[in-house]
Amino acid sequence: MVEKKTDALPKHVINMAWILVLGAIAPMLDATMVNITVNDLARDFGATLSTIQWVITGYVLATAVAVPFAGWLVNRFSGKWVFLAAEIAFGVFSLASALAWNIDSLIVFRLFQGAAAGMLTPLLTTLLVDLAGSDAMGRLMAVVGLPIMLGPILGPVVGGIVLQYASWRWIFYINVPIVILASFLIALKLPNFEAKDRHAKFDVIGVALLAGVSSTIIYGIVQASTKGDFTNHTTLAYVGAGVALMVVYGIYAHFMGDKAILPIRLFTRKNFSAAMVGMVVGGVATNGAMLLLPLFFQNLRGDSVIVAGLSLIPQGVGMLLARPIVGKLIDRIGARYVTIVSLFITLVGTVPFVYFDGHTAYWLVGLVLLVRGIGAGGILSPLMTDAFVGGSQRDSGSISVASRTFQNIGGAFGSAVIATVVAGYMTTHTSIAAGYQTGFAWSAGLSLLILIPALFLTNKLSKK
Fold first, then answer.
1. Which of 294, 304, 407, 456 supports an S-S bond with 274, CB 3.0-4.6 Å?
2. Do 299 and 413 belong to one domain?
3. For the whole prediction, is pTM greater than 0.90?
4. Residue 410's domain is classified under what CATH number?
5. Is residue 233 domain-shared with residue 155, that is, in the same domain?
6. Residue at a domain's end among 260, 276, 299
7. What is the mean pLDDT of each run of 10 residues along the chain (464 residues)?
8. Residue 79: which residues within 8 A CB-CB, separation 6 or more?
9. Residues of the domain holding 428
């Protein structure tokens, strides 16, 4: 009886978690839905591909820049109203994007939409930690990770269906009812979270430096993906500038102490530093494969966008199946072995793609994707959870900022690395299948790097 009581999450906590997740779903879907509208936007606005690309790149950069602001806002004001304001802003600029009259207005509206989206995910994490404390962290992070994991899978499916029957403007219109419902529930059901420090001063320099770190590194990585070369001058300059800003921030935060938006002392905790490294490496490993899978179905098997999206459903099902189990295991045994076991399950679901081609049976591909989903569903959650272990409630905002920043960088880097590898291979070889197989081989190999930070994550078994 005691064990059951320990495992059970209070119903009100579960309800609050799902309301917050509902608020984060639209931004997660939007990040990938818009990617498939490039041709439609180019045709309707008569713009070049390089200009249209800023509809996507601008959103990503604005998301990265906004993340540090979330940490200060949630410390200074009630988390409920900050989250609600960001949610409403996302809805307003989604509507504005749908009504855009030229490509310039669309890019501007997407920048504001991305800024709102950039604050929602770290706010979501912070509020859940404040709501439930550390005992149920694993189970709650499994809920938080759901929109982050399913967004790249469901986004192309929803986007493909919308484009099949309506114009690209409906990619943005469909966000509006979701935002209205989420905003209503947030205002009505979410408790008033007390500000952690109503007198907290805005760390202008710290926020500017962190925003500069993430935006310059991500922009440099995006340029590498576009040019198909990590040694081009633009990439080296921007990534180098990002690293330099990171060093400057480290020096600045050292002297500022706890007044910094992201205190350096957090990195003195072994599990926190390991979680941050794990998020970067995990993003490299998982996002690369996420990029390849839709292309595998479309370019290698000749499937439509909708069919390719539907073919990825088994992976989403696997993630859903893993979510509750992973959450309970994290709370019981810690993040270390959950991450390691999930990694190897992910590899079992990735390595077969090194040998798959356009003639591989759909049932076999679907089965492997199901396995991959089960594994991938257990990588992000333990890393996110362990970042909070040992930290105080006052640190939750800063930890959320750090987590999202490292996730963004790792995700962008992973997509760029795999895209560059595949593009480079195909320029010297004629086999499309071999190009994708090489990409999956790289993804599997890079995944093994997660083992290094995983060894430094929390292990509750050793304490029993």
1. 456
2. yes
3. no
4. 1.20.1250.20
5. no
6. 260
7. 50 80 83 75 79 79 81 78 92 95 92 90 79 65 65 75 86 92 89 70 82 83 72 86 91 85 85 88 77 81 80 85 83 88 93 89 93 88 82 74 80 77 75 85 90 88 60
8. 123, 126, 127, 130, 193, 195
9. 264-464
